TrEMBL record:
<dbReference type="InterPro" id="IPR000132">
    <property type="entry name" value="Nitrilase/CN_hydratase_CS"/>
</dbReference>
<dbReference type="InterPro" id="IPR036526">
    <property type="entry name" value="C-N_Hydrolase_sf"/>
</dbReference>
<dbReference type="InterPro" id="IPR023919">
    <property type="entry name" value="Nitrilase"/>
</dbReference>
<feature type="domain" description="CN hydrolase">
    <location>
        <begin position="6"/>
        <end position="272"/>
    </location>
</feature>
<comment type="similarity">
    <text>Belongs to the carbon-nitrogen hydrolase superfamily. Nitrilase family.</text>
</comment>
<dbReference type="GO" id="GO:0000257">
    <property type="term" value="F:nitrilase activity"/>
</dbReference>
<feature type="compositionally biased region" description="Acidic residues">
    <location>
        <begin position="313"/>
        <end position="324"/>
    </location>
</feature>
<protein>
    <submittedName>
        <fullName>Aliphatic nitrilase</fullName>
    </submittedName>
</protein>
<feature type="region of interest" description="Disordered">
    <location>
        <begin position="299"/>
        <end position="324"/>
    </location>
</feature>
<dbReference type="InterPro" id="IPR003010">
    <property type="entry name" value="C-N_Hydrolase"/>
</dbReference>
<dbReference type="InterPro" id="IPR044149">
    <property type="entry name" value="Nitrilases_CHs"/>
</dbReference>
<dbReference type="Pfam" id="PF00795">
    <property type="entry name" value="CN_hydrolase"/>
</dbReference>
Length: 324
């Protein structure tokens, strides 16, 4: 049974740029470390497995072929032994895990968020609805079916990746489903210090507007990794800073010191009673909404590229299909 207090953890660590096996090992180690500290809800960065496609930010398209193919080879299939390993860890430690992966679906890659419940079941697989700028060379688009809040052992959980938080209707879609804990994912080690500042503003605003807790994780690159990704010092600057791993209350306050550089795990206790405290004054999808003036049309149908129609059985030979 869920208690009034949930201990949450946001993980900021570096991936293994050589492939998914090493990064999955780091994920499993971080789950164990956070669980040892009492965490019941653990969030990892955007497309953390095997790694965020930093190459797409610093290389021109004509030079992206080889690293793009390597990312496809190392990307995660859902389900797979890798997702099963995370599910097993979640079940063993009784924790809810939100993990960002590069998902391979045949010939396409997607920015995917996976929510594993405390019993190890995959509660949600969703894809970023619109890759941002350089990312459109790497990932396909998600659909409205993934804009979904799921019931978990720690409460109603929703998730968005990076600049999806700048799509107010995407956020509102989760708010209308009464999200209690929001998992935010950003790549980290990107753009520079202004990116971290923007993330903080965005996470605090969503917590206030949604009346929910926000647990946000950004990634980290070591200096050796940055040098490996590109030899030009000017372009290396584009892969530093931009980190803001944080945990925010429904009142928009930091519940622990954010992590803006280096590796670490932010941990804080979420007093779930604060949701009602916030919403009694301002419930964006309840008493503060004006649905007769403004409302959201959310298409929840999965996007498919093939539609089939079965032949209709009939007793009239003249109406039978020609190939019957």
């Amino acid at each position: 049974m869920r208690t009034d207090t949930i201990r949450a953890a946001a993980v900021q660590i570096a991936p293994d740029l050589t492939g998914r096996a090493g990064t999955i090992e780091r994920v499993l180690n971080a789950i164990a470390e956070a669980a040892d500290k009492g965490a019941q809800f653990i969030v990892f960065p955007e497309t953390f497995v095997p790694y965020y496609p930093y190459f797409s930010f610093v290389l021109p398209p004509v030079q992206q072929g080889a690293p793009h193919l390597e990312l496809m080879r190392e990307a995660v299939v859902v389900p797979s032994p890798e997702t099963q390993a995370v599910a097993d860890a979640a079940r063993k430690r009784g924790v809810v895990v939100v993990l960002g992966v590069n998902e391979r679906d045949h010939g396409s890659l997607y920015n995917t968020q996976l929510i594993f419940d405390a019993d190890g079941t995959l509660a949600l697989k969703r894809r970023k609805i619109t890759p941002t700028y350089h990312e459109r060379m790497v990932w396909g688009q998600g659909d409205g079916a993934g804009l979904k809040v799921v019931d978990t052992a720690v409460g109603r959980v929703g998730a968005l990746a990076c600049w999806e938080h700048y799509n107010p209707l995407a956020r509102y879609a989760l708010m209308t489903q009464h999200e209690e804990i929001h998992a935010g994912h950003f790549p980290g080690s990107l753009v520079g210090p202004i990116f971290g500042e923007q993330i903080e503003v965005t996470m605090r605003h969503h917590a206030l507007e949604a009346g929910c807790f926000v647990v946000n994780a950004t990634g980290w690159l070591t200096e050796d990794q940055i040098t490996t990704l590109h030899p030009d010092p000017k372009l290396q600057k584009a892969m530093r800073d931009g980190c803001m791993t944080c945990i925010i209350s429904p009142e928009g306050r930091h519940l622990t010191d954010p992590i803006t550089e280096g590796e670490g795990i932010a941990i804080a206790d979420l007093d779930m009673r604060l949701i009602a405290k916030r919403k009694r004054m301002m419930d964006s999808v309840g008493h503060y909404a004006r649905p007769e003036l403004l409302s959201l049309n959310h298409d929840t149908r999965p996007a498919v590229t093939r539609h089939t129609q079965d032949a209709v059985a009939t007793d009239d030979p003249e109406e039978a299909p020609e190939n019957a």
